[in-house]
Write a structure and sequence with these properties.
Number of strands: 19
CATH class of the largest domain: Alpha Beta
CATH topology of the largest domain: Naphthalene 1,2-dioxygenase Alpha Subunit, Chain A, domain 1
Order of helices and strands: HEEEEEEEEEEEEHHEEHEEEEHHE
Strand order of the largest sheet: 12-18-17-16-15-14-13-19
Mean pLDDT: 91
Helix content: 10-25%
Strand content: 25-35%
Shape: globular
Number of helices: 6
Structural class: alpha+beta
Distance between the termini: 42 Å
Largest sheet: 8 strands, antiparallel
């Protein structure tokens, strides 16, 4: 388990997105890596998703190179077949019904929810469901899911997704632009993370604001970190339009992070038409983040090798401290930050 020692085995005892639902067909298995583990996902009985360690118990061949037949995963080497629980149900060379007792490969709990397949890579049974994408049960929303590979750490990804000041420079003209307007943000610690609510936020000089927001009225904007690896951004505009960005981070191996982002927006009856423009725009904006975090990862690796001073923060980095403290506490098995703490921060956007 290559990543377990780096992140703490306790961080494995949570739900992580394994793939998008549409990535998992009924005929071909899907090779996946999570926390350095080689896994294979496929659809078993009733189309339910299953995740197994990607190795046949016979001669260690990769099961992901096989095929799915009648909801069973067949090894490409000798044709041994596995059900969704990882149990060997057929050994062709022994003849029909002749399967030795106790042959199985390790399996992981799987849940399909909100367009994603989730898995629990830690020991023990899950004690809670995966985090929800709030708009998936509400009518009138259009959505799409992006899968994006980042380099760095889960902490760096989450802070980036929940950081408004960077957007005025990295996404200048697309999502935000510098306005010099002072804004108040209320940061609140929650039982499952933390959130920042913005008041008096400027809305001008960007393609996104031109699409969704009229110049008058009060906009609602809340950014939320949901431990251990999910971010949620909600905008509701006075004309009834809205969008939600829910991203969840799945460590692959080394400094590779797979991020699954569910983009949901409410645009009256024009959602499918708006998507034709909004989806490529969203992909362009997230690629800007990928390029920036690539540069950050390069610098951090060089600084660590040279023994350079650590990064510095200010109070304008609203949710960064909560993300780091929460994840460090979970990794060490310590109590997370207490819920209920509230502070108001002034920043300029």
């Amino acid at each position: 388990m290559a990543a377990g020692g780096d992140t703490g085995d306790r961080l494995l005892r949570h739900w992580y997105a394994l793939c998008r639902s549409r990535d998992l067909g009924h005929r071909a298995p899907l090779p996946v890596r999570l926390f350095g583990r080689r896994l294979v996902a496929f659809r078993g009985e009733g189309g339910r998703p299953a995740a197994l360690h990607d190795r046949c118990v016979h001669r260690q061949a990769p099961l992901s190179a096989g095929r799915v037949c009648a909801a069973r995963l067949q090894c490409p080497y000798h044709g041994w077949a596995y059900d969704g629980s990882g149990r060997v149900v057929q050994v062709p060379a022994l003849g029909p019904g002749q399967v030795p007792e106790g042959l199985r490969v390790a399996s992981l709990p799987c849940v399909e929810q909100d367009g994603l397949v989730w898995t629990w890579p830690g020991e023990g049974e899950p004690d809670r469901p995966p985090p929800r994408v709030p708009t998936c049960d509400e009518p009138g929303w259009t959505r799409f899911i992006m899968k994006t590979r980042f380099r760095g750490t889960v902490e760096a990804c989450l802070e980036n997704f929940l950081d408004c000041p960077h957007a005025t420079f990295v996404h200048r003209g697309w999502f935000r632009s510098p306005t010099g307007v002072p804004v108040t943000a209320r940061v609140t610690s929650l039982p499952d993370g933390a959130q920042a609510e913005y008041f008096g936020e400027p809305r001008r000089r960007s393609v996104i604001w031109a699409m969704f927001s009229p110049p008058g009225g009060t906009m609602q904007h809340v950014d939320r970190f949901i431990a251990p690896a999910t971010s949620r951004v909600d905008y509701v505009f006075p004309n009834g339009l809205a969008y939600n960005i829910t991203s969840t981070c799945s460590p692959v191996e080394g400094d590779a992070i797979e991020v699954y982002t569910v983009m949901s927006f409410r645009f009256r009856g024009l959602g499918p038409l708006v998507r034709l423009f909004f989806e490529p725009l969203s992909r362009w904006i997230i690629r800007q983040d990928v390029r920036m975090l690539d540069r950050v990862a390069d610098n951090r690796a060089a600084d660590a090798a040279a023994g350079a001073p650590p990064a510095r923060s200010t109070e304008a980095d609203l949710l960064g401290e909560s993300i780091w403290r929460w994840r460090a506490a979970l990794a060490r098995g310590e109590p997370p930050p207490a819920a209920g703490a509230v502070r108001d921060v002034r920043l300029v956007l």
